[in-house]
Design brief:
The chain crosses the membrane at residues 36-58. Keywords: Glycoprotein, Glycosyltransferase, Membrane, Transferase, Transmembrane, Transmembrane helix. It is a single-pass type II membrane protein. Its main location: membrane. One of its GO terms (cellular component) is membrane. This protein has 392 residues and is α/β, with parallel strands linked by helices. It has one domain. The chain contains eleven helices and nine strands. The chain has helices at 2-66, 85-89, 101-108, 138-145, 187-201, 222-230, 275-283, 288-294, 305-314, 345-350, 379-390; strands at 124-130, 152-157, 206-213, 217-218, 272-274, 324-325, 357-359, 362-364, 370-371. The strands form three sheets. A four-stranded mixed β-sheet has the order 2-1-3-5. α3 (101-108) crosses α5 (187-201) and α5 packs across α7 (275-283). The longest helix has 65 residues, at 2-66. It is elongated, with a radius of gyration of 37 Å.
Amino acid sequence: MKVMVMEMEEGVKDNAASTPKSRLTNQSRALLSMRLLQILLFFLVLALGISVVGIHMIKFLKIQYLAPVAPTTLISMYDHGTVTLESFIRPPLNVWHTLNDTELLWRASMEPRRNVYPFKRFPKLAFMFLTKGPLPFAPLWEMFFKGHEGLYSIYVHALPNYKPDFPRSSVFYRRYIPSQAVSWGEMSMCDAERRLLANALLDISNEWFVLLSESCIPLRGFSFVYSYVSGSRYSFMGCADEEGPDGRGRYRNGMEPEITLSQWRKGSQWFEINRKLAVEIVQDTTYYPKFKEFCKPPCYVDEHYFPTMLSIKHRIFLANRTLTWTDWSRGGAHPATFGKADITETFLQKLPGAKACLYNDQKSHVCYLFARKFAPSALEPLLQLAPKILGL
């Protein structure tokens, strides 16, 4: 009995001794399960966070880069599947588009950096007409352009509410660009000129850019004009350092440090420049704000902005003269205007005078290719005399 009791007591003791170990093992297992659960929850929360961030990043990238763009005439040429070289070099079939000025200037500032073209390029003269609306001398210009297709482009900037009605046969048919209102002597005038340049730059074949008004006429035939411009080593823009109230007197100290008084220049509004300088004008964001803020009448921005900017950066490429003859002998804010009674053979022969100038650093008596300012009544006698006197 004692043995049995002792065995029973020993068994009880053994059971009693093993109970704490069992509890310890169970607690460890519970803690381990809890730890695994915490780790799983951590990774679950982490994965959820990464998913949320990823979704926001995808949305952001879509907004930044994948948002659909409203169709314009500029991108419509690429809607044919395969992108070819022609799709980049072909000019828009219609100069009308839906780009605002910011988009247009940005697009026009894109230029190839290589000088060699991978296709046969025929350099063209871009004729840019800055008008209020009608072109009273359109028949004379039609005569001027006739027979020279492929060597010129035409762009017309008129007031926004003007509706041109040229027939399909006219060189001016659908050549009016999207425009904005223009005020004489204010920055909106240069905005219009930059708008013309930007539209003309969209045609990769346009190499030279001539700014004209509705009151301008040609003084020479197209072939002569093309040879004269294309053969020049310089662009034709005045950049004179003029003393007095109409020159340096228009400068404002607020233009510093971008523009100093010694850099201030003046020139004719009517210019001819090459493609390199045209790109400089449309991409400018340095000088434009200064002129817009500080050059207001009696500072006429169209006489100072381009001459000053190009003189600072590219003086050696400027001939420092205009190709458009104007009579300022009568004084005042506007040049003399010539009407029907003024148009005679003698007048046209002596129109630009015999004043000598420099052409490619050599003396020349051919200084002007265009003239202004002519009233609409001058059209009839001009059409009669143009073939004989102007060589059209």
